[in-house]
Amino acid sequence: MRSLERHRDVGAYALGVLDETEAFRFEDHLMDCASCTAQVTEFGPAARQLMLYRRATPRSVHPMAGPGPRLLDRLLGEVAARHRARRRRHLYAVAAAVVLAVAGPGLTVLASGGGDGAVRVAATDERSGVWAQVTTEDEAWGSQVEVTVKDAAGPRVCTLVAVGRDGSEETVTTWTVPRHDARPNTMRGGAALHPDEIDHYEVRTADGTPLVRLGTR
Question: Could you report the per-residue pLDDT of 122-179, keeping only the tens digit for each?
Fold first, then answer.
């Protein structure tokens, strides 16, 4: 297939409608095409909305029925919200990079408090190219943790480890990074340590190689 035609497969790949052979070929194309990799990530919100629409549509509705104004408004609203959020994250990351430049080369960290009392931290490691965001909520039994990771170096198995202020370590959750998948993946887990007992988090490979460190302060 010619390169131009391969670029046109971005939407079909993001929506999961390519057959296995075409998907494999497109993933090979992603290795050398930064533009398509970025577009696959951009299609994420629209793909999720279409999946929600499919699940919410009664079986009595004809499969070729067109989307109504409400769905279109939701799609446009989410895309606009994502763009605004992306701009805010970029500004926060730039500010954090300036403030924390003395922390060491190749690392950008962002910390904030969630509106629901949760503590949220994010970081990008330029050496590994991995970005991660961890949200921690205090519970009676410890901490409820949600981690979102962007890692295009799969396939590989990774873990999120909570490191206590006393030096103890707890594995929060484990996952497998898909092959050549630049989309963010979200996982949930928990730790017996409470948020004020956690010094930092680390995303590591299965063999213990650190990919990104996220401080809690």
Answer: 999 989 889 999 999 999 999 999 999 998 888 899 999 999 999 999 999 999 988 8
Domain-located, residue 145:
yes
Residues 75 and 172: their CA atoms lie apart, in Å, by: 33
Considering the domain boundaries, does residue 14 fall inside one? yes
SS3 196: helix
Burial 158-182 (b: 16+ CB within 10 A, else e): bbbbbbbeeeeebebbebebeebbb
Q: Residue 137 is part of which domain span?
A: 106-215
- 52: region left, alpha or beta (phi > 0 left; psi from -120 to 50 alpha): alpha
Whole-prediction pTM: 0.49
Distance CA 14, CA 33 (A): 15
Question: Domain total for the chain?
Answer: 2
pLDDT in tens, 107-127: 444 555 554 578 899 999 989
